[in-house]
Amino acid sequence: MSRSNTLFMGGGKSLENADYRTAVGLAVDILCKAAVTHLELTDDKVQRVDYT
Fold first, then answer.
1. DSSP string of 11-42?
2. Over its length of 52 residues, how does the chain's per-residue pLDDT go in tens digits?
3. How far apart are CA 32 and CA 10, in angstroms?
4. Three-state SS at 44
5. Distance from CA of residue 2 to its chain's centroid?
6. Burial profile 37-51: b = 16 or more Cβ within 10 angstroms, e = fewer
7. Half-sphere exposure of residue 15: CA atoms within 13 angstroms, side-chain side
8. Pairwise CA distance, residues 38 & 2, whole Å
9. Phi, psi angle pair for 2, to nearest 5°
10. Residue 52: which of 35, 31, 32, 28 has the closest Cα?
């Protein structure tokens, strides 16, 4: 595999990990395999999430 492909493939996981750390720092609950059924928005910001 070329060096550029290796860097590209690793970028997704690194970005996901950075997003996860940021969310945890903001006290966001992380749920795996949850389906979002409704988003409540106020001024284009998510205020509530309903899920199953």
1. HHHHHHHHHHHHHHHTT----TTPPEEEEEEE
2. 455 555 566 667 887 888 899 999 999 999 999 999 999 999 999 999 999 9
3. 21
4. coil
5. 28
6. eeeeeeeeeeeeeee
7. 6
8. 43
9. -75, 160
10. 35
